[in-house]
Amino acid sequence: MAEALWLHAVARDAGGLDGFPGIVGATVRTVAAAGLVAVVSPVDPAEFGEEALRRNLEDLPWLEGVARAHHAVVAAAGERGAVVPATLATVYRDDAGVRAMLEQRRADLDAALDRIGGHTEWGVKVYAGKEPVPVAAPAQQRPASARPGTDYLRRRRAELSAGDERRRRAEDDAEQIHEALAGRADAARRHPPQDRRLTGHAEPMVLNGAYLVGTDDSSRFADAVDELAQRHPGLRLELTGPWPPYSFASAEEASAEETSAGEAPAR
Amino acid sequence: MTVTAGRTERVALVDLLDRLLATGVVISGEVTLSIAGVDLVYVSLRALVASAATVAPPPELQARE
Predict the structure, then answer these.
(1) Which sequence spans correspond to the domains of chain A?
(2) C or N terminus of chain B, fewer CB within 10 Å?
(3) What local confidence, expressed as pLDDT, does residue B6 receive?
(4) What ipTM, to 2 d.p.?
Protein backbone atom coordinates (compact mmCIF):
# COMPACT_ATOMS: atom_id res chain seq x y z
CA MET A 1 0.00 0.00 0.00
CA ALA A 2 1.58 3.25 -1.10
CA GLU A 3 0.64 5.39 1.84
CA ALA A 4 2.52 6.28 5.03
CA LEU A 5 1.00 7.94 8.10
CA TRP A 6 2.32 11.09 9.71
CA LEU A 7 1.40 11.21 13.42
CA HIS A 8 0.22 14.58 14.76
CA ALA A 9 -0.98 13.73 18.24
CA VAL A 10 -2.64 11.16 20.47
CA ALA A 11 -5.89 11.96 22.27
CA ARG A 12 -8.70 10.13 24.01
CA ASP A 13 -11.27 11.62 21.70
CA ALA A 14 -10.70 13.52 18.47
CA GLY A 15 -14.33 13.99 17.49
CA GLY A 16 -14.80 16.20 14.46
CA LEU A 17 -11.17 16.23 13.39
CA ASP A 18 -11.68 13.83 10.47
CA GLY A 19 -11.45 15.90 7.31
CA PHE A 20 -9.37 18.71 8.84
CA PRO A 21 -6.58 19.86 6.47
CA GLY A 22 -3.40 17.97 7.33
CA ILE A 23 0.15 17.81 5.99
CA VAL A 24 0.65 19.34 2.54
CA GLY A 25 -2.75 18.76 0.99
CA ALA A 26 -3.66 15.63 2.94
CA THR A 27 -6.84 15.25 4.95
CA VAL A 28 -6.59 14.28 8.61
CA ARG A 29 -8.04 11.00 9.81
CA THR A 30 -7.92 9.03 13.03
CA VAL A 31 -6.73 5.56 13.99
CA ALA A 32 -8.19 4.13 17.21
CA ALA A 33 -6.82 1.42 19.50
CA ALA A 34 -6.41 0.76 23.23
CA GLY A 35 -8.97 3.42 24.12
CA LEU A 36 -6.82 6.07 22.43
CA VAL A 37 -7.06 7.92 19.15
CA ALA A 38 -4.10 8.79 16.92
CA VAL A 39 -4.59 11.83 14.69
CA VAL A 40 -2.72 11.21 11.43
CA SER A 41 -2.21 12.59 7.92
CA PRO A 42 -1.77 10.10 5.08
CA VAL A 43 1.44 11.07 3.27
CA ASP A 44 3.40 9.92 0.25
CA PRO A 45 6.23 7.55 1.29
CA ALA A 46 8.30 8.94 -1.56
CA GLU A 47 8.31 12.33 0.18
CA PHE A 48 8.21 11.10 3.79
CA GLY A 49 10.41 8.00 3.76
CA GLU A 50 13.60 8.10 5.78
CA GLU A 51 15.90 9.13 2.93
CA ALA A 52 13.49 11.72 1.60
CA LEU A 53 12.81 13.15 5.06
CA ARG A 54 16.48 13.57 5.75
CA ARG A 55 16.78 15.65 2.59
CA ASN A 56 13.51 17.53 2.95
CA LEU A 57 14.09 18.59 6.54
CA GLU A 58 17.02 20.66 5.33
CA ASP A 59 14.79 22.47 2.86
CA LEU A 60 13.50 25.42 4.85
CA PRO A 61 10.32 26.20 2.87
CA TRP A 62 9.41 22.48 3.03
CA LEU A 63 10.17 22.32 6.77
CA GLU A 64 8.16 25.47 7.43
CA GLY A 65 5.12 24.21 5.48
CA VAL A 66 5.14 20.89 7.29
CA ALA A 67 5.78 22.44 10.73
CA ARG A 68 2.92 24.93 10.36
CA ALA A 69 0.49 22.32 9.03
CA HIS A 70 1.40 19.96 11.87
CA HIS A 71 0.98 22.76 14.41
CA ALA A 72 -2.45 23.67 13.02
CA VAL A 73 -3.67 20.08 13.45
CA VAL A 74 -2.20 19.72 16.96
CA ALA A 75 -3.71 23.06 18.03
CA ALA A 76 -7.12 22.07 16.62
CA ALA A 77 -6.96 18.70 18.38
CA GLY A 78 -5.94 20.48 21.58
CA GLU A 79 -9.07 22.60 21.47
CA ARG A 80 -11.16 19.45 21.65
CA GLY A 81 -9.44 18.02 24.71
CA ALA A 82 -6.15 16.75 26.08
CA VAL A 83 -3.55 15.81 23.47
CA VAL A 84 -0.03 14.43 23.51
CA PRO A 85 1.68 16.12 20.54
CA ALA A 86 4.05 13.98 18.52
CA THR A 87 7.54 15.18 17.71
CA LEU A 88 7.87 16.45 14.17
CA ALA A 89 8.46 13.69 11.59
CA THR A 90 6.99 10.68 13.38
CA VAL A 91 5.92 8.46 10.49
CA TYR A 92 4.35 4.95 10.33
CA ARG A 93 4.11 2.55 7.44
CA ASP A 94 0.42 1.80 7.91
CA ASP A 95 -2.56 1.71 10.29
CA ALA A 96 -1.30 -1.49 11.90
CA GLY A 97 1.92 0.29 12.91
CA VAL A 98 -0.04 3.11 14.54
CA ARG A 99 -2.32 0.67 16.37
CA ALA A 100 0.66 -1.34 17.64
CA MET A 101 2.25 1.87 18.97
CA LEU A 102 -0.98 2.87 20.77
CA GLU A 103 -1.19 -0.57 22.41
CA GLN A 104 2.47 -0.69 23.41
CA ARG A 105 2.58 2.85 24.77
CA ARG A 106 -0.89 2.89 26.29
CA ALA A 107 0.23 3.36 29.92
CA ASP A 108 2.71 6.17 29.08
CA LEU A 109 0.23 7.94 26.84
CA ASP A 110 -2.56 7.70 29.42
CA ALA A 111 -0.27 9.10 32.10
CA ALA A 112 0.82 11.94 29.79
CA LEU A 113 -2.79 12.78 28.92
CA ASP A 114 -3.66 12.93 32.64
CA ARG A 115 -0.66 15.12 33.37
CA ILE A 116 -1.04 17.71 30.59
CA GLY A 117 -4.81 17.65 30.13
CA GLY A 118 -6.40 20.99 31.09
CA HIS A 119 -3.06 22.77 30.63
CA THR A 120 -1.49 24.95 28.00
CA GLU A 121 2.10 25.96 27.45
CA TRP A 122 3.36 29.55 27.62
CA GLY A 123 6.73 30.68 26.35
CA VAL A 124 8.71 33.48 27.98
CA LYS A 125 11.81 34.83 26.28
CA VAL A 126 14.08 37.33 28.01
CA TYR A 127 16.62 39.50 26.22
CA ALA A 128 19.50 41.29 27.92
CA GLY A 129 18.86 45.03 27.98
CA LYS A 130 20.81 47.35 25.78
CA GLU A 131 22.39 49.74 28.20
CA PRO A 132 24.56 52.50 26.77
CA VAL A 133 28.11 51.32 26.26
CA PRO A 134 30.62 53.91 27.47
CA VAL A 135 32.13 55.36 24.30
CA ALA A 136 35.80 56.14 24.43
CA ALA A 137 36.67 59.62 23.21
CA PRO A 138 38.41 59.72 19.82
CA ALA A 139 42.09 59.08 20.20
CA GLN A 140 43.26 62.43 18.83
CA GLN A 141 41.35 64.35 21.52
CA ARG A 142 43.02 62.50 24.33
CA PRO A 143 46.08 63.92 26.01
CA ALA A 144 49.20 62.48 24.48
CA SER A 145 50.31 59.43 26.36
CA ALA A 146 53.72 57.97 26.62
CA ARG A 147 52.22 54.52 26.21
CA PRO A 148 49.21 54.68 23.85
CA GLY A 149 49.21 50.90 23.37
CA THR A 150 48.87 50.22 27.07
CA ASP A 151 46.16 52.87 27.41
CA TYR A 152 44.20 51.30 24.59
CA LEU A 153 44.42 47.84 26.13
CA ARG A 154 43.33 49.15 29.51
CA ARG A 155 40.33 50.95 27.96
CA ARG A 156 39.40 47.93 25.92
CA ARG A 157 39.61 45.65 28.95
CA ALA A 158 37.35 47.99 30.92
CA GLU A 159 34.79 48.00 28.09
CA LEU A 160 34.85 44.23 27.81
CA SER A 161 34.45 43.65 31.52
CA ALA A 162 31.54 46.14 31.62
CA GLY A 163 29.89 44.09 28.85
CA ASP A 164 30.58 40.83 30.67
CA GLU A 165 29.20 42.32 33.86
CA ARG A 166 25.96 43.41 32.14
CA ARG A 167 25.60 39.99 30.55
CA ARG A 168 26.20 38.25 33.89
CA ARG A 169 23.64 40.47 35.61
CA ALA A 170 21.10 39.77 32.89
CA GLU A 171 21.70 36.03 33.29
CA ASP A 172 21.21 36.27 37.06
CA ASP A 173 17.97 38.20 36.53
CA ALA A 174 16.84 35.62 33.96
CA GLU A 175 17.48 32.88 36.52
CA GLN A 176 15.26 34.70 39.04
CA ILE A 177 12.55 35.27 36.45
CA HIS A 178 12.59 31.59 35.51
CA GLU A 179 12.37 30.56 39.17
CA ALA A 180 9.47 32.94 39.78
CA LEU A 181 7.56 31.70 36.73
CA ALA A 182 8.31 28.03 37.46
CA GLY A 183 6.75 28.64 40.88
CA ARG A 184 3.53 29.69 39.18
CA ALA A 185 3.50 26.77 36.72
CA ASP A 186 2.90 23.04 37.12
CA ALA A 187 6.07 22.28 35.15
CA ALA A 188 8.84 24.34 33.58
CA ARG A 189 11.78 23.81 31.30
CA ARG A 190 14.32 25.91 29.47
CA HIS A 191 15.02 25.63 25.78
CA PRO A 192 18.47 26.75 24.63
CA PRO A 193 18.48 30.51 23.96
CA GLN A 194 17.91 31.31 20.30
CA ASP A 195 20.70 32.57 18.11
CA ARG A 196 20.72 36.33 17.57
CA ARG A 197 20.49 35.83 13.82
CA LEU A 198 17.11 34.17 14.27
CA THR A 199 15.53 36.43 16.88
CA GLY A 200 16.02 39.68 15.00
CA HIS A 201 17.10 41.36 18.25
CA ALA A 202 20.59 42.78 18.72
CA GLU A 203 20.49 41.89 22.42
CA PRO A 204 21.37 38.32 23.39
CA MET A 205 18.59 36.05 24.63
CA VAL A 206 19.21 35.02 28.22
CA LEU A 207 16.07 32.94 28.82
CA ASN A 208 13.95 30.79 26.51
CA GLY A 209 11.54 29.27 29.00
CA ALA A 210 8.43 27.08 28.61
CA TYR A 211 5.81 26.80 31.33
CA LEU A 212 2.94 24.36 31.72
CA VAL A 213 0.02 26.30 33.16
CA GLY A 214 -3.53 25.24 34.02
CA THR A 215 -5.97 26.71 31.51
CA ASP A 216 -7.77 28.55 34.32
CA ASP A 217 -4.50 30.09 35.54
CA SER A 218 -3.49 31.59 32.18
CA SER A 219 -4.40 35.18 32.94
CA ARG A 220 -2.73 35.01 36.35
CA PHE A 221 0.41 33.71 34.66
CA ALA A 222 0.34 36.54 32.10
CA ASP A 223 -0.06 39.04 34.97
CA ALA A 224 2.99 37.56 36.66
CA VAL A 225 5.00 38.03 33.46
CA ASP A 226 3.82 41.65 33.30
CA GLU A 227 4.83 42.23 36.87
CA LEU A 228 8.29 40.75 36.29
CA ALA A 229 8.72 42.92 33.18
CA GLN A 230 8.02 45.99 35.32
CA ARG A 231 10.40 44.85 38.01
CA HIS A 232 13.18 44.42 35.42
CA PRO A 233 12.96 47.51 33.20
CA GLY A 234 16.44 46.82 31.80
CA LEU A 235 15.33 43.53 30.22
CA ARG A 236 12.96 42.78 27.37
CA LEU A 237 10.38 40.08 28.13
CA GLU A 238 8.30 38.37 25.45
CA LEU A 239 5.34 36.14 26.19
CA THR A 240 4.19 33.66 23.52
CA GLY A 241 1.26 31.30 23.60
CA PRO A 242 -0.93 29.60 24.42
CA TRP A 243 0.85 26.65 22.82
CA PRO A 244 -0.21 23.03 22.86
CA PRO A 245 1.94 21.46 25.61
CA TYR A 246 4.73 20.50 23.20
CA SER A 247 7.54 20.97 25.70
CA PHE A 248 5.87 18.76 28.29
CA ALA A 249 4.74 15.81 26.23
CA SER A 250 7.05 13.31 27.89
CA ALA A 251 7.45 12.84 31.61
CA GLU A 252 11.26 12.93 31.72
CA GLU A 253 11.35 16.31 30.07
CA ALA A 254 8.73 17.82 32.31
CA SER A 255 10.69 17.05 35.46
CA ALA A 256 14.32 17.12 34.36
CA GLU A 257 15.17 20.66 33.52
CA GLU A 258 17.45 21.11 30.59
CA THR A 259 20.66 22.93 31.28
CA SER A 260 20.98 25.60 28.68
CA ALA A 261 23.87 25.10 26.31
CA GLY A 262 24.24 28.83 25.88
CA GLU A 263 23.87 30.79 22.70
CA ALA A 264 25.68 29.46 19.69
CA PRO A 265 28.56 31.74 18.85
CA ALA A 266 27.33 34.37 16.43
CA ARG A 267 29.68 36.70 14.73
CA MET B 1 6.49 43.10 26.59
CA THR B 2 4.83 41.64 23.55
CA VAL B 3 2.27 38.90 23.58
CA THR B 4 1.81 36.57 20.65
CA ALA B 5 -1.35 34.53 20.56
CA GLY B 6 -0.44 30.98 19.57
CA ARG B 7 -3.51 30.42 17.47
CA THR B 8 -4.80 33.70 16.16
CA GLU B 9 -1.50 35.12 14.97
CA ARG B 10 1.16 33.49 12.89
CA VAL B 11 3.68 32.07 15.33
CA ALA B 12 7.39 32.64 14.80
CA LEU B 13 8.90 29.65 13.00
CA VAL B 14 11.89 29.57 15.32
CA ASP B 15 9.62 29.37 18.41
CA LEU B 16 7.63 26.60 16.78
CA LEU B 17 10.75 24.62 15.86
CA ASP B 18 12.11 24.97 19.41
CA ARG B 19 9.03 23.06 20.47
CA LEU B 20 8.64 20.62 17.62
CA LEU B 21 12.27 19.60 17.31
CA ALA B 22 13.92 20.06 20.66
CA THR B 23 11.39 18.26 22.79
CA GLY B 24 12.71 14.77 22.21
CA VAL B 25 11.07 11.68 20.82
CA VAL B 26 7.69 11.42 22.43
CA ILE B 27 6.51 8.44 20.45
CA SER B 28 8.74 6.29 18.30
CA GLY B 29 7.80 6.23 14.65
CA GLU B 30 8.75 3.41 12.32
CA VAL B 31 10.48 5.51 9.74
CA THR B 32 12.29 8.22 11.62
CA LEU B 33 14.10 6.58 14.53
CA SER B 34 17.53 7.25 13.17
CA ILE B 35 17.02 10.88 12.30
CA ALA B 36 15.17 11.96 15.41
CA GLY B 37 16.82 14.00 18.12
CA VAL B 38 20.02 15.92 17.87
CA ASP B 39 20.67 15.33 14.18
CA LEU B 40 17.27 16.66 13.31
CA VAL B 41 17.69 19.82 15.35
CA TYR B 42 21.08 20.36 13.85
CA VAL B 43 20.06 20.09 10.20
CA SER B 44 17.02 22.26 10.53
CA LEU B 45 18.65 24.99 12.56
CA ARG B 46 21.52 25.05 10.13
CA ALA B 47 19.00 25.51 7.35
CA LEU B 48 17.27 28.25 9.30
CA VAL B 49 20.46 30.15 9.97
CA ALA B 50 21.50 29.91 6.34
CA SER B 51 18.13 31.15 5.22
CA ALA B 52 17.89 33.94 7.80
CA ALA B 53 21.27 35.18 6.62
CA THR B 54 20.01 35.28 3.03
CA VAL B 55 16.66 36.94 3.59
CA ALA B 56 17.85 39.55 6.10
CA PRO B 57 20.95 41.33 4.80
CA PRO B 58 22.72 43.62 7.26
CA PRO B 59 21.08 47.07 7.61
CA GLU B 60 23.91 48.90 5.84
CA LEU B 61 23.32 46.82 2.72
CA GLN B 62 19.60 47.52 2.74
CA ALA B 63 20.24 51.23 3.14
CA ARG B 64 22.44 51.31 0.08
CA GLU B 65 19.83 49.78 -2.20
Answers:
(1) 4-116, 119-255
(2) C
(3) 41
(4) 0.79
